[in-house]
Write a structure and sequence with these properties.
The complex is a heterodimer of chains A (about 350) and B (about 550). By secondary structure, chain A is mostly helical. Helix content of chain A is about 75%, strand content about 0%. The longest helix of chain A is centred in the middle third of the chain and has 38 residues. Chain A is globular. Chain B is α+β, with helices and mostly antiparallel strands and about 550 residues long. The chains are: A mainly alpha (about 350), B alpha+beta (about 550).
Chain lengths: ~350, ~550
């Protein structure tokens, strides 16, 4: 099967998968032994039948469950994700506000993971059991086993509170006016509107949370890269390449590392999903107004339209990233046939 | 050849040269280093009127900024700054209503009509003058939207415009609490003409016709000291000084309220001076900040009652429905120890009415810890094995009080008299559902004042909101029925002295015969930079931004 047909086939599978995800989210949200009325109305209001009836009517909660789901699905098909109970904004507007900060964070985190993890993994493998390997292994162990919540607080304490190298948590300093909302990516919006002060401030704010968020994927990537490299370096074709007198750098990077990258690629795809879920904790610690904090807020207030909107978006990202990983396999390793 | 050699000759085991090593790590570490040395220091960032902006950190609880639709803590704080109500309170006080948009008021002899004279020359931020029509429209909107804050106007018959500067509120029955209730930011007065243009509706069909919420979530339409310039849900609220406000201009030109969920993060930011006032702190942070330089810490009493509920319905409460066991629980608790969990500034409660309100019992009148007496009461009850389940919201911290710590303390205290409780900690939403459904055998909860009056705590009476949750109905006993009737009586009693005496009687009887063990009234912990002045915390609306000042 050629790659174009493969991609089209996978893309066609997305809509039924998303319908399944909405159904699952809907059923799970209603399986929770609590009522949106309890989560959203105050003590006195919840005790007043008139207010409760008005609330249920307003949010369509007085209709039978299958009807509620049917209405929701019909609206989603027409591009309407409904209105969030907790922000009173269209969920689409909320997602447009909260998704860019998380993508910004996750992208920088994954780039950091790759830029640090791959070279460190290669070095660990090449200098196995030496100091650099021990350091690399410790690095990956700490990265995968340290709770992000704790790491985030320690990083804030050290780099912001003690050393003063990092800015305070948040996406921008409180006294810096945000650039006009265009794409939702502050760095990009700052550049587009010529607000270099905001760009510089936003970049500074990104570093620490991105480092913390990347810690898990960094650990995994380093470990996978090291393991794959160790395996690949023992292969005959590497020895042959060396025997042919190719420069060491070429052997290491073009022959060994390229093949070792295939396993790492799978991990990168999976860890991108992990980054989106890990963002809930990182965003809480760093007061980052992203999808993670929105998801948390929505779930605690049983904001069903928002929960389902977040589910659809995260699932879509997961599906697309995995598709990209599959396509990238073929690009990296010509032996792999897609189909 | 060892596998460690990877096919490279001896001596070349480190198969990368220094240059190659640098190339390898250059991509990764280089980025980190570049970030460190990039010229993106704060010196480049242009502060926007730094001296004029005060940054407040809060753990956001905002569903809406439309006054008629909200009663949540952070939205009340914002709305208190952007809208004025007819009356208000000064600072932390909750006892004496003061003039705000109404300069004076008169109560009819039957206690059923309140007539307010409006302040002259007050203008909304739009430039429209305030008239009695705006007051009627705003209160009618609350009545007809039937949203979260409707209960505040329970018992209101109608609102009448007497002339442009006088308005009357007519009640179905006398209700002296209406005056303090009218201070609620949820009953703030809106610019009726302007909000109508934005889709606002106050007619009996407002529930379906009103479309102003979206507008009011982005802009305010009041006479308050500030106007809302930006609200990004879950992130930030920005306010700017209202040039048309009727009092002398507020000191701070701009207020930025940032959502910071993690208390430790708030602590560090106020220490560093990036936040001027931190309102979402816990007891741990407060202790640490007491030693911080340039930071002042303070606590203000919160009109909230923490209490243990014991279900009076035998099918739910089991042994805890027995009045002797309930009394034993009250004697078994170590109140001094519980106060250390509650934190600095908290006050022991003898009854369920917070001491902030007239009519509350003197804390010294509460039962003292007496475990011998508790054991003897258990013996008198005839129940041989007292066991049960203690429900609470395990993820909840209220005014710095961690509910899971409190639950553990209660469990340990009761175990000392052989009352065995299993902990049933649940996430707030599910725990709250069980509690509201009356399914708690034993629970530890709090009730926060929705408005500044003791009548908000009559919910503990048999058959009322908390009473029902505790399975305690007026028909439980003649005494319960008499107490319920006393509650109806106090709500309508116009005479202050008589009302006060009635509240004291009710509070005492609730403490003695109710299925509750009142614990304490907490204190709100907050911290601010030492150059910030005028910081007070009102239990109903939080900070009053109007009084804030900052020196360089």
């Amino acid at each position: 099967m050629n790659i174009g047909r493969f991609v089209v086939r996978r893309l066609l599978l997305i809509p039924p998968m998303l319908v399944g995800i909405t159904l699952l989210s809907f059923l799970l949200s209603h399986a929770v032994p609590a009522d949106p009325v309890t989560a959203n109305l105050g003590e006195q209001a919840a005790a007043n039948p008139e207010i409760v009836a008005a609330f249920k009517h307003h949010w369509g909660l007085d209709r039978p469950l299958p009807e509620q789901y049917g209405i929701y699905l019909w609206r989603v098909i027409h591009g309407d994700f409904g209105v969030s109970i907790s922000t009173r904004q269209a969920v689409a507007v909320d997602l447009r506000q909260h998704l860019p900060p998380t993508i910004e964070l996750a992208l920088v985190a994954i780039i950091l993971g790759l830029l640090i993890g791959i070279p460190l993994g290669i070095l660990s493998a090449v200098r196995r059991d030496r100091l650099v390997d021990q350091v690399g292994r410790m690095f990956s162990l700490v990265g995968t086993s340290t709770p992000i919540f704790w790491l985030g607080l320690v990083m804030i304490l050290v780099f912001y509170a003690k050393l003063g190298w990092a800015p305070p948590p948040g996406r921008l300093s409180a006294r810096i006016a945000a650039p006009p909302f265009m794409t939702g990516f502050v760095v990009l919006d700052g550049l587009l509107s010529g607000r270099l002060d905001a760009v510089a401030d936003a970049l500074k704010h990104l570093i620490l949370p991105a480092l913390v968020l990347s810690s898990y994927s960094l650990g995994i990537i380093t470990r996978m890269m090291r393991g794959s490299m160790l395996e690949v370096l023992d292969e005959d074709y590497v020895r042959t390449a060396r025997a042919k007198g190719l420069p060491r750098w070429d052997v290491l990077v073009r022959h060994a590392a390229r093949n070792a990258l295939i396993a790492v690629l799978t991990v990168v795809g999976l860890s991108f999903g992990g980054l989106l879920s890990g963002a809930v904790v990182t965003e809480t610690v760093f007061a980052w107004p992203g999808l993670g904090s929105y998801a948390f807020q929505s779930s605690t207030s049983l904001d069903i339209p928002a929960i389902m909107g977040v589910g659809i978006i995260i699932a879509s990202i997961y599906i697309v990233v995995n598709l990209l990983v599959d396509v990238a396999y073929a690009a990296i390793d010509p032996r792999i046939r897609i189909g | 050849m060892s596998s460690a050699d990877h096919g490279f000759p001896k001596g070349e085991r480190f198969a990368v040269t220094r240059r190659e090593l640098l190339r390898l790590i250059g991509g990764g570490a280089g980025l980190v280093v570049a970030n460190r040395f990039l010229p993106i220091s704060t010196a480049l960032a242009t502060p926007v009127a730094q001296a004029a902006t005060l940054v407040v950190a809060a753990n956001f609880v905002i569903k809406s900024l439309d006054p008629a639709r909200t009663i949540e803590t952070t939205s009340e704080m914002v709305n208190h700054a952007t809208y004025d109500s007819l009356v208000t309170f000064d600072g932390e006080d909750l006892k004496t209503p003061k003039p705000s948009l109404a300069t004076s008021w008169r109560v009819s002899s039957d206690g059923k009509t309140y007539t307010f004279v409006l302040r002259q020359n007050v203008r909304f931020a739009s430039g429209n003058p305030l008239t009695a029509t705006d007051v009627k429209w705003s209160l009618d909107r609350v009545l007809n939207l039937k949203a979260n804050s409707l209960f505040l106007l329970d018992g209101v018959e109608d609102v009448l415009v007497l002339d442009p500067s006088r308005v009357a509120i007519r009640l179905k029955t006398p209700k002296p609490s209406i005056l303090p209730i009218l201070s609620s930011p949820s009953l703030g007065i809106l610019d009726s003409k302007f909000v109508t243009e934005q889709g606002g509706d106050a007619t009996p069909d407002a529930r379906d016709k009103d479309k102003a919420e979206t507008y009011l979530n982005a802009h305010s339409a009041g006479t308050g000291a500030y106007v809302l310039t930006r609200y990004t849900p879950g992130q930030e609220v920005a306010l700017e000084r209202n040039p048309t406000h009727w009092r002398p201009a507020a000191n701070a030109e701009r207020i930025v309220i940032r959502n910071i969920v993690e208390p430790a993060t708030e602590q560090i930011q106020v220490e560093k001076g990036d936040v001027d006032i931190a309102t979402g702190l816990g007891q741990d942070q407060l202790q640490a900040l007491r030693r911080a330089q340039g930071v002042s810490v303070k606590t203000s009493p919160a009109a909230t009652t923490f209490y243990v509920l014991m279900n009076a319905n035998p099918s739910v409460g089991g042994p805890f429905a027995n009045p002797k066991i309930q009394q034993a629980v009250r004697y078994a608790l170590d109140y001094a120890g519980i106060l250390t969990i509650a934190g600095a500034g908290s006050v022991r409660l003898a009854g369920v009415i917070p001491t902030l309100f007239p009519g509350a019992m003197d804390p010294r009148q509460g039962p003292n810890t007496d475990r011998d007496r508790a054991r003897s009461l258990i013996r008198e009850s005839g129940v041989s094995d007292v066991r049960g389940q203690l429900s609470y919201a395990s993820d909840s911290t209220i005014w710095g009080v961690q509910m899971n710590l409190l639950a553990q303390k209660i469990q340990a205290d009761l175990l000392a008299v052989d009352i065995r409780l299993d902990l049933n900690g649940l996430p707030i939403t599910t725990a709250l559902q069980q509690y509201r459904d009356g399914k708690n055998q034993v629970g530890v909860w709090s009730w926060a004042a929705d408005y500044p009056d003791a009548s908000d705590f009559l919910v503990y009476l048999p058959g009322r909101t908390v009473g029902k949750r505790a399975g305690w109905l007026p028909d439980a006993s003649p005494a319960a029925k008499a107490l319920a009737d006393l509650g109806d009586q106090v709500e309508m009693e116009p005479d202050n002295a008589k009302r006060l005496a009635l509240y004291q009687r009710i509070d005492r009887q609730l403490a003695e015969m109710g299925p509750y063990a009142p614990l304490f009234q907490p204190a709100v912990p907050y911290a601010f930079r030492s150059n910030v002045g005028g910081v007070t915390f009102n239990s109903v609306w939080g900070l009053d931004f109007y009084t804030l000042t900052r020196t360089a």
